[in-house]
Specification:
The complex is a heterodimer of chains A (785) and B (361). With 785 residues, chain A is α+β, with helices and mostly antiparallel strands. Chain A is built from 19 helices and 40 strands. Chain B has 2 domains: 94 residues; 243 residues, Bira Bifunctional Protein, Domain 2 (BirA Bifunctional Protein, domain 2). Chain B is built from 13 helices and 10 strands. The chains are: A alpha+beta (785), B alpha+beta (361).
């Protein structure tokens, strides 16, 4: 909402500068988004007294003036105007002044006579489009004063963001009321004007059947108007306040709405058929709105209608055919109070916001309904002629919001704010329109009809907080003590230690991306109103997000990426929906770049598997990776499910090449995902004494069939090597020259240890023998020579 | 010349010869060979001793003494030489092992937490250390928790300002209202209070709730998904002064200096009174710059005293208890602290940005 400074001053004689007013508004709770200065003060134009005037010797239409601007010598000025005489006071632009129209004043010679300045009209000062001579200033204007300051030409427009609870401040008077109360300045009385009533103009017939939603409705006929443009001052005011002039009648209504907060509407009386009724729509009525939209209304919408059709969606917008045009001569003026919730609901259904609806849904002042209509009538008749009939009034404005009072202890408010409430604050509240009486701790406050937002003691605490000022409230640390144990969630922190960069991607992806890794089983969660198709369904896999980020980075010359993300995935369940916490990884491109100590290596499955294993081990867990060719979107033969204990906690593998190509990625991409919600928690490790006796290590190299699983081999080693075994692993893998086709050479290193003695050759020989036997029996593997 | 004199001369000459040989020895191995040559069981000195038998018995001890003296002298010289050679050998080895320490180290990939994660961690830790319990809640919410319980009834203008994402074909438990993506972390406030009351709890209750939130708004300064931290406390006699105290402490801790704070009266449906909180601009120290639009202040969060209707909606007696609450945007806090100019950087996930802004662990 834009509030011109000059307009504010019509309600309260503010003396502060625009910058100070802006600070006051912020302190009072009205956010100032900006202060525009559409008319900067004209500097260098002074009040001058014409001491003498003689005709120019060489030009009939010019005069030679001696003008006193309060300095030792009067200025000689050549002037072309005719409306001034010696003794008049006029604005004098001195040398060096730059006028609003861009004219820069210099010493000049006009027909041989030197001129040391220029006397100005309203046009040169930017006050009017045309004029018929110099601007003659009042006789008491102080000679030498800056005309800009004297005439208060400076204009500032406050761009305010009015909070939704302060409907009473969506007009100049409301803002002026707060400022006046705060500065202890009197608020001007509302200009009340009444047009003469012409008995020959009938009062309109109105029936209100939806009294609940429209507790008061006023209408009156004005006949014989001549619609013309509104006067320049009104257009200027409207433009400064951010509204475009439309036609004279609409402008008057808008002006009064901005001034007092009451939206009104004018119908072209000659376009109406019969009387007016305010009622609920009866299913599927048509409505042609002023903004050009054709609506089918729902039963229950609050409408204004004549005998044939809906002429307004109450409080929101009038109909196109019944609107006032330049050709209109007879109007019906409407001023009413529509129930805020009703207007809000209808406005939402049709997404139809108007200046009127914004005010009605925040609540207008019921006592302003008639005052505004009277002023509008008077202004219309004054500007555009015509004569007004009696007002038809349905309902009683006095009954709306009337007699509300709040009774509470002052100490309650003081406790809530943490500061004492001084008596002086009561006075400010009084000036804001409240009735305040305090006796000891008992506070009784009556709430003015325009303050729909104040109904409970806590609301009063807000008023007092504004009045006292938040700065005056002390800062005190309250006693605090956490009651529940703090659990350290370290999933992502552990993951980045392995060299991974944490990423954050959107929780919504495209339906196409969803289908890459998740079958269409009806459990997708779609958005009703997505930003775009690319962000339309809640992800059930974190992998599309990771792939998009990999694409972004690989396209920007990154040789490789190691990404990790923690976040939720979402799916419908029979009972509702699930949000599952997951951690997911992606590796693509170089695992190692060319360095002086080694050469480039592309990342592979085992880089990622190692990362997942390390992450699990940091949580005291270990995983088993079971080959699984059936994981959607992963390449068969390079994918596995991850078992932690008996829980299938995740999946890992190489992204299908076609899918990767769909993300413009032409290097192998590996992804993994672990469900954090079902991951078992390991107990903290218990202390074990460190071995006192040395252990032994032995290596055995076997030839296996090529597709033998390492996991199965190590399990067989573990079960055959005996009780002394502490570790077994694959330390070498070779196929090629010297190894028969279809075979692979695998080196198994195992370690033995006894807590009570040093091991002997016999111990390791015995273990070796049983391992060799087991390998042969289980896999047909032979010891390699 | 007597036998004894001849032997003495022989010994002296041998000793000179040996000392000269020691001095010439190249390396510890050569020195060891010389030790064997002169002092070994079959060494030169031993040979000399063999001649002692020919001497008259009276002379024998004299010569024996000479031989022993010579032996000792050679042994001392050998030991000294050995030390000298060992020092030399070590110096040579060190020189041979010299490396270019300016070559780059073996590179290990640098991991990093996302700046938003760092912000969440820092903010949550500050409140946890102050004594707030940490709570979380669902991102797919119902209208009751996201709006109604927070004193935002359906017709409320504030509801429209929330730019809510709605879920297609999904209703709340009662089957009456559509589900939505939570627009703020405030529903966790409702859930935490409800759970607390259901478990028979009696305030005080103080909670910090970090999480993801969603708004249907996407441009240079808005992301459809972002992160918030909700903080609230309910107790007897909680006041606006307490809110100010917590804000001052938290903001100074987070920004690692005594920041000036300013509360401006504002409106939120779920608090009464409500205030927007500004801090003295961290970029220009309040002098006025482009970022604070010359005002010297930067808006950081919304706050207020919990509206009695909110307490009532979860069954807490608002006559007996009061509370404060505030919610802050994590991305905004991180941008202010680390001077990040553009919200979109967080969700673009460019690894150059992530590595630079990241601190592992």
């Amino acid at each position: 909402m834009k509030i011109p400074f000059s307009w504010l001053k019509k309600h309260v004689a503010l003396t502060a500068t625009p910058a100070q007013i802006a600070d006051d508004l912020v302190r009072l709770g009205h956010e100032v988004e900006g202060v525009e200065m559409p008319r900067a003060a004209v500097k260098g134009v002074r009040v001058g007294l014409i001491e003498s005037k003689i005709p120019h010797p060489d030009a009939d239409k010019l005069s030679l003036l001696k003008v006193n601007i309060g300095e030792a010598e009067p200025l000689s000025i050549v002037c072309g105007a005719a409306n001034m005489d010696a003794g008049d006071k006029v604005p004098v632009a001195t040398i060096g002044t730059c006028l609003p129209n861009g004219l820069s004043i210099k010493k000049g010679k006009i027909r041989g006579e030197v001129s040391f300045g220029m006397c100005c009209s309203e046009v040169e000062l930017g006050l009017a489009e045309d004029s018929d001579g110099l601007l003659i200033l009042p006789a008491d204007a102080p000679v030498g004063a800056e005309v800009g300051e004297y005439l208060e030409l400076e204009e500032a427009v406050f761009d305010l963001s009015i909070t939704p609870n302060r409907g009473d401040c969506m007009n100049v008077r409301g803002i002026a009321r707060d400022l006046a109360a705060d500065a202890n300045l009197p608020l001007a009385e509302i200009e009340q004007s009444f047009a003469d009533i012409n008995d020959t103009v009938a009062a309109p017939a109105v029936s209100v059947s939806a009294g609940q939603d429209c507790p008061v409705y006023l209408a009156r006929n004005i006949q014989g108007v001549t619609v013309a443009d509104s006067p320049a001052w009104m257009q200027t005011a409207l433009l400064l306040a951010g509204m475009r002039p439309v036609n004279g009648i609409v402008d008057v209504l808008n002006y009064i709405m901005l001034d007092l907060g009451q939206p009104m509407h004018a119908f072209d009386a000659d376009k109406l058929e019969g009387g007016i009724s305010v009622r609920s729509a009866i299913g599927e009525e048509n409505f042609s709105a002023l903004d050009g939209r054709e609506l089918k209304l729902n039963a229950g919408d609050l409408v204004v209608s004549d005998n044939s059709s809906v002429i307004a969606l109450a409080g929101i917008m009038g109909s196109e055919p019944t609107g006032v045009t330049d050709a209109t001569t007879n109007i019906v003026l409407e001023s009413a109070f529509f129930r805020p919730a009703r207007v809000s609901e209808t406005r939402r259904i049709y997404a139809m916001v108007s200046e009127a609806s914004m005010r009605f849904e925040r609540g207008v002042d019921p006592l302003m309904v008639e005052i505004a209509m009277q002023r509008a009538t008077a202004l219309i008749i004054e500007l555009f002629g015509g004569s007004a009939g009696e007002i038809t009034c349905c309902g009683n404005a006095d009954a709306i919001n009337a007699g509300r009072s709040i009774c509470c202890p002052v100490s309650g408010i003081a406790t809530r704010l943490g500061v004492d409430i001084p008596q002086a604050a009561d006075d400010v509240l009084g000036r804001m329109g409240f009735g305040v009486s305090r006796s000891k701790d008992r506070l009784e406050v009556t709430v003015p009809s325009f303050r729909h937002d104040v109904s409970i003691p806590e609301d009063l605490s807000e008023e007092y907080a504004r009045i006292i000022g938040f700065d005056a409230i002390p800062a005190i640390l309250p006693p605090l003590a956490a009651t529940s144990p703090v659990r350290q969630e370290r999933s992502i922190h552990d993951a980045v230690t392995g060299g991974f960069l944490q990423v954050v991607s959107y929780a919504f992806i495209s339906a196409d991306e969803q289908r890459l890794f998740v079958a269409d089983d009806g459990r997708d969660i779609e958005l009703e109103n997505p930003i775009s198709d690319a962000m339309s369904v809640m992800r059930r896999s974190p992998w599309p997000g990771l792939l998009n980020i990999a694409r972004h980075n690989l396209n920007r010359q990154q040789p490789g990426v190691l990404l990790v993300e923690q976040g939720r995935i979402y799916a419908r369940t029979d009972a509702g929906h699930d949000e599952i916490n997951t951690i997911s990884w992606l590796i693509a491109g170089q695992a190692q770049s060319d360095e002086w100590y080694g050469s480039t290596r592309q990342a592979d499955f085992f880089d990622l598997k190692g990362a997942v294993e390390t992450w699990l081990s940091l949580r005291g867990l270990s995983g088993r990776f079971i080959a699984d060719d059936s994981i959607q979107g992963l390449q068969a033969g390079q994918s596995a499910k991850v078992l932690v204990g008996r829980t299938e906690a995740g999946r890992i593998g190489r992204v299908d090449g076609d899918i990767a190509a769909g993300f413009d990625i032409d290097v192998p991409v590996f992804v993994a995902e672990i469900n954090l919600d079902i991951l078992p928690t390991a107990k903290k490790a218990k202390f074990m004494p460190l071995p006192e006796f040395p252990g032994v290590e032995r290596d055995l190299v076997f030839l296996f069939d090529k597709n033998t699983s390492s996991d199965a081999i190590l399990n067989a080693v573990k079960s055959s090597a005996g009780k002394l075994l502490t570790d077994a692993r694959i330390f070498d893998r070779y196929e090629g020259k010297g190894v028969p086709e279809g075979k692979v050479s695998l080196g198994v290193r195992f370690a033995l240890q006894d807590a009570k003695r040093t091991l002997t050759q016999e111990d390791s020989d015995a273990a070796s023998a049983s391992i060799i036997a087991a390998m042969e029996k289980r896999f047909g593997a032979s010891l390699r020579g | 010349m007597s036998e004894i004199d001849a032997l003495k001369i022989q010994l002296e000459s041998l000793q000179r010869e040996a000392l000269a040989a020691f001095a010439e020895a190249e390396g510890l191995n050569a020195l060891q060979a010389l030790r064997v040559h002169y002092l070994g069981k079959k060494g030169a000195l031993t040979e000399v001793l063999k001649g002692v038998g020919k001497l008259p018995p009276a002379d024998r001890p004299v010569i024996g003494k000479f031989v022993n003296q010579a032996k000792q002298a050679l042994a001392v010289a050998l030991d000294a030489m050995e030390v000298e050679l060992a020092v030399k050998a070590k110096a040579e080895r060190i020189e041979a092992e010299r490396i270019d320490v300016t070559l780059p180290g073996r590179n290990r990939p640098k991991g990093a937490l996302h700046p938003v994660q760092q912000g969440l961690d820092e903010l949550t830790a500050i409140f946890a250390q102050m004594g707030f319990d940490v709570a979380e809640g669902p991102e797919i919410e119902d209208e009751f928790h996201n709006f109604d319980a927070l004193n935002i009834p359906p017709e409320h203008p504030a509801r429209a300002m929330h730019d809510t994402f709605f879920i297609k074909d999904m209703k709340n438990d009662e089957g009456t209202e559509p589900m939505l993506l939570r627009t703020h972390t405030s529903p966790v406030q409702i859930r935490a209070m409800k759970r607390f009351v259901a478990e028979g709890g009696e305030p005080p209750l103080a909670v910090v709730a970090p999480g993801r939130v969603y708004r249907c708004d996407y441009d240079v300064t808005h992301s459809p998904m972002f992160h918030q931290v909700e903080v609230f406390k309910v107790d007897r006699d909680v006041s606006l002064a307490h809110l100010k105290g917590v804000l001052q402490h938290f903001l100074s801790t987070y920004f690692e200096k005594d920041v000036a704070i300013r509360l401006r009266p504002h409106y939120f449906p779920f608090t009464e009174p409500s205030a927007e909180v500004d801090i003295g601009c961290v970029f220009c120290a309040g002098k006025g710059c482009r970022i604070c639009k010359g005002s010297g202040w930067i808006e950081v969060l919304g706050s207020g005293m919990i509206h009695p209707n909110v307490l009532r909606s979860v069954g807490i007696d608002s006559n007996e208890f009061s509370g404060f609450a505030f919610g802050l945007g994590v991305e905004r806090m991180v941008m202010l602290k680390q001077g990040i100019p553009d919200l979109r950087l967080f969700f673009e996930n460019d690894v150059r940005f992530l590595s630079r802004m990241g601190v592992a662990k």
